[in-house]
Amino acid sequence: MPTRADRGVSIIAWTILVFLLLPSLVVVPIAFGNSNEIIFPPHAFGVVLFRRFFTEPGWVAATFVSVRVACLTTALVLVVGVPAAYALSRGHFPGKRALALFLLSPIMVPGVVIALALYIYYARIGLHDGTTRVVLGHVVATLPFVVVTASAGLRQVDPALETAATIMGASRFTLFWRVTLPLIRSSIVAGGLFAFLISFDEVVISWFVARADTITLPVKMFSSIQWEVSAVLAAISTMLTALSVIICLAVAALQRKEAR
Amino acid sequence: MRDAATNGAPALDATHPMVRLDQVAKAYGTVQALRPIDLEVRKGEFLTLLGPSGSGKTTLLNMIAGMTGPSQGRVWIDGRDVTETPPAKRGIGMVFQNYALMPHMTIFQNIAFPLQIRRVPAAEIRRRVTKVLEIVRLPHVAGRKPRELSGGQQQRVSLARCIVYNPSLILMDEPLGALDKNLREQMQLEIRRLHTELGITMVYVTHDQEEALNMSDRIMLMNGGAAEQLATPHELYFAPCSRFAAEFIGTSSLVPAEITGPGMARLVDGTTVVIARGATTGLGHVMIRPESMRLTALPGGASTPNAVHGTLQDTLVTGGTVKHFVTLRTGEMLVIQELENEHRTNFEHGQAVSVSWPVNAAIFLDR
């Protein structure tokens, strides 16, 4: 039974949510306008802008670059982040807390600092492959999210299950692969989806480290806006918002399933 | 500790014990969680570690399992020093209070898991899983997930998962703690049956004295991180070694007393009684079990050598048994239990009564 105070808090929360969401929602009607200029509300509706996205040179190619980068980032960050979270939650070794702090530090450091640092570092070690540059940068940015979600999942695992498996004779590898990993599957999927979304959206690091052959969609959007304010951007923003919403709903559904 | 294990315990393989603890102790920093303990669990034996929470029984079990390393002493399993051996290599099985079945696996997969670890061929796995499911009387659940089963069924599956790989030793940590009373009694019988049929050595941890008395060949009673007494259930009940043992197991009446001569003790109210067993000198308590005592009306009670006078406070009829509560002149309470029958003498509350017991029923405890 919600109390009056609860209702008050939820009204405030919803107001803030609407306030934050409104700018994103405004682009949706614009995207379905028929004009090439950014007008709100649009005079006529159509899918002209979406058609332009698919026909104008560069947009689809940039989208493919983004998808490739996001997929590679997701795969790599899970391979690094999940075992790291496992080591942090189950292992006993000196410097454990320092390592945990280090893995989470990209959240605390401003994105532009990471971007500049990577730019200088890549130049120093002579890393020139565009995809590698962007993917490694995105792994740094998304690692904390994967470590946090995987750690949360690991905390939920009943220690008796791991004890039971160990006493039955399971090796460390078997224990991780057959018991722990399946039990935190939904946390891993959630972390992976977040990583994908963050990578797909990421603009600062990509802008600094991308090469001509790895212009991601957000980078292309950002650079195109410097030349002209094209209404195509509204259509792309709408699609990106839809993607975010779908992924967040998927994560929420996973967590609900987990809670059952 | 008095190890009086020779009477009543079943004849067992005597070549070497299944478990041998040699001066095993555990300290956390400066806190002594477990004082040095020696214990031998014989092959095929059902031994229970019984004690209140914090008595060290689970710590001791975890040291046999290898989940906790002892601060000192050696642990031997099946004639092998396993003190440094990790739990996965000790060849034991364990049953947990919360069943610890893998929620992402079906019942079949759960039971097959330890066999897969041992690289048993698939056809053999199928055969053995089917067989153990029959042994625990759950042949139809192979395809289900653990959460679709009741608590009692889950614990049977957990037992099946243990016995399927034939460990030489099964450890059980309060396995029936999460079940309700009726189911608990049923499962006690079930575990006893498995123990008898399969002949596996079992070390069982519980805080429930009734459960321990029902199931065990021998019980090690633990208190405050030390072994209090190691004995058969019968000995533990009729010959406890201390006040703690007497009070933890069953109901007992304890009256402060002093030894005055060979086989004689003077109770706190001045009565002299005959003591057949227990300590032979000093101050302590006389302990008598409720079913050993007899109540007679005063005046005119039988003149036996072991009789004290008191006042009947209350009589409680609980189905088949009757409990009388009698206070001595000095305030100590005696609990007398007899079987209910139609022709039982009725006593008035506040009536003067005489309480007597056979000569060998009283035991003198000096600690």
Walk me through the structure.
The complex is a heterodimer of chains A (260) and B (367). Chain A is built from twelve helices and no strands. Chain A has helices spanning 4-31, 48-55, 59-90, 96-108, 111-125, 130-156, 159-167, 172-183, 185-201, 204-209, 217-227, 232-259. With 367 residues, chain B is α+β, with helices and mostly antiparallel strands. In chain B, the strands form four sheets. Chain B has a six-stranded mixed β-sheet with strand order 6-7-8-3-9-10, sandwiched between helices. Chain B has a six-stranded mixed β-sheet with strand order 13-12-11-15-21-14, with no helix packed on it. In chain B, strands 16-20-17-18-19 form a five-stranded antiparallel β-sheet, with no helix packed on it. In chain B, helix 2 (107-117) runs parallel beside helix 4. Mean pLDDT of chain B is 86; it is low at 1-13. At the A-B interface, helix 7 and helix 8 of A face strand 6 and helix 2 of B.
Question: How do the strands and helices of this protein lay out in sequence?
Answer:
The complex is a heterodimer of chains A (260) and B (367).
Chain A: H1 4-31, H2 48-55, H3 59-90, H4 96-108, H5 111-125, H6 130-156, H7 159-167, H8 172-183, H9 185-201, H10 204-209, H11 217-227, H12 232-259
Helix pairs in contact in A: 1-12, 2-12, 3-6, 3-9, 4-6, 5-6, 6-9, 7-8, 9-12
Chain B: E1 19-28, E2 31-41, E3 46-50, H1 57-65, E4 72-77, E5 80-81, E6 92-95, H2 107-117, H3 122-135, H4 151-163, E7 169-173, H5 181-198, E8 201-206, H6 209-215, E9 218-223, E10 226-231, H7 233-238, H8 243-248, E11 253-261, E12 264-267, E13 272-274, E14 277-278, E15 283-288, E16 294-297, E17 307-318, E18 321-328, E19 333-339, E20 352-356, E21 363-365
Parallel strand pairs in B: 3-8, 3-9, 6-7, 7-8, 14-21
Antiparallel strand pairs in B: 1-2, 1-4, 4-5, 9-10, 11-12, 11-15, 12-13, 15-21, 16-20, 17-18, 17-20, 18-19
Keyphrases for this structure?
heterodimer, B: 367 residues, alpha+beta, 6-stranded mixed β-sheet, elongated, disordered N terminus
